[in-house]
Structures are given as structure tokens and as C-alpha cells.
Amino acid sequence: MSAEPDLETLVADVFARGCTSRRTLESITGKWGVLALVALREGAYRFNALRRRVDGVSEKMLAQTLQTLERDGMVHREVLATIPARVEYTLTPLGAEIADQLFALVELLESRVPQVVEAQAAYDADRPR
Amino acid sequence: MSAEPDLETLVADVFARGCTSRRTLESITGKWGVLALVALREGAYRFNALRRRVDGVSEKMLAQTLQTLERDGMVHREVLATIPARVEYTLTPLGAEIADQLFALVELLESRVPQVVEAQAAYDADRPR
């Protein structure tokens, strides 16, 4: 018998602070993780093009986001043998599954923006500054 | 003609940094937003019970998260007329819709944890420290 936990029988629980699923949830739903994954559903991106697509992200934050997503097996980074060398990012099959789910969330949210704006106005009206 | 943008005809775009949907996406997918919304699918929670459920969140961060979710119309905060007064949090219909979508994401992610762990191990093996 091994003292190592058996991954097949362990139940992942995002509510448990030490669980891998919690850390991965944070990276796919982090400020930039969602936008990078949803953008990559549109096809392969080079770094600078992706940075333009994800309006407002800094070079450093995008690099860090992509690195985490690559490590988690969501994003594939390919160095193309061109001169000069180009680096292209695509979704892995796992990343595509997660990105589809995130896209559904984004679509739902975008369709509900008028309700959100209304709620914000009502909230602020009740609490005059 | 009004100079105010017409909410019905404006298209929400999470990729645009100034869009309300971007800010709301950040709050529902923030580090604690996802977990609070998914927890509240289980039913009404009082603050301290919710804090125990969302393992690892500080009092300050949970209060801030709930306040943003309340302002966005996702969470309803009710002060119960008990002695001492109790405060209970529930999902609004809008919050329930978003939370269902987040729950689907969490379920997908939890089921893929073995793949994530494998990807992380392969990534780390390629890059010895």
C-alpha cells in the first residue's frame, strides 16, 4: 500500500483551501484567465495580438496568466520555426472544454448587463454618499 | 434624442475594459465571488456560516465580496428581526442563474483535476529548478 493519495479516489473540492481544484479555479477565473481562455476560443493567437484582444492587460500579467494556464494544461505554447521565431498560443482539448463553459458564463452575463446596471443604480440610490 | 447611451441597444463586451460586464465578470469570477455564489446555491447563509463554508476567506474579503455581489444584484442581504438581529444572505434570481453556470464550471473543473495534476507534473519536469 502506498501512502500517496490516490488521485482516482480523491474527490476534488474547490471549497477546500488546499485542493488543486481551488488553485486551478483561481487561475481559470482570475482577472485575466477568463478573458485569455475565451479569446483563445477564437483561434491561435500570438502574444501581442492576444494582448490587444484582452484590452487593458499588461505584458507582465498576460505572460504570467498564460504561463499558469500552460502549466495547468489549458493552453499550448508553440515556438514556430520562423525567422524571427514566433510564439503562438492555442487551447488544449482540456482548455477548450473549460473555455466553452466560461464562454457560456460570459454570454449569460453580457445578456444580463441591463439588470446589473439597474441593480447597481438601486443600490447606490439607497446609500447616498 | 438623448445623448445617454441606450442600454437596450448597447452590446455588452467583456473584452472592452470600460464595459460594466467586464467589472461584473471580475466580481463574479473573483477569487471569492465564485465560491460565495456557488455556496449560496445550497441555500441561505448567515455571514459566519458562509465564512466557514468558503474555507480560507477573511472576514474583510467576504464582506467586500458580498457587498459587491449585492450591488450587482446577485445576492440579497436580509436583516432578520430577531434578537440579536441576524443577517442572512440568499441568491437573487439573477444570482441563481449565474451561480448555476458557475457550478457547472466548478463541476467540470473538479472532474478534470487528475488531468490538471498530470499537466502540472509534466510542465515542472521539463523545467528543473
From TrEMBL, chains A, B:
Signal peptide stretch: none
InterPro entries: HTH_HxlR, WH-like_DNA-bd_sf, WH_DNA-bd_sf
All copies of domain HTH hxlR-type, residue ranges: 19-117
GO molecular function, one term: DNA binding
Pfam families cross-referenced by the UniProt entry: HxlR
Record keywords, A-Z: DNA-binding, Transcription, Transcription regulation
Source superkingdom: Bacteria
Name of this protein: Transcriptional regulator, HxlR family
Species in which this protein is naturally found: Cryptosporangium aurantiacum
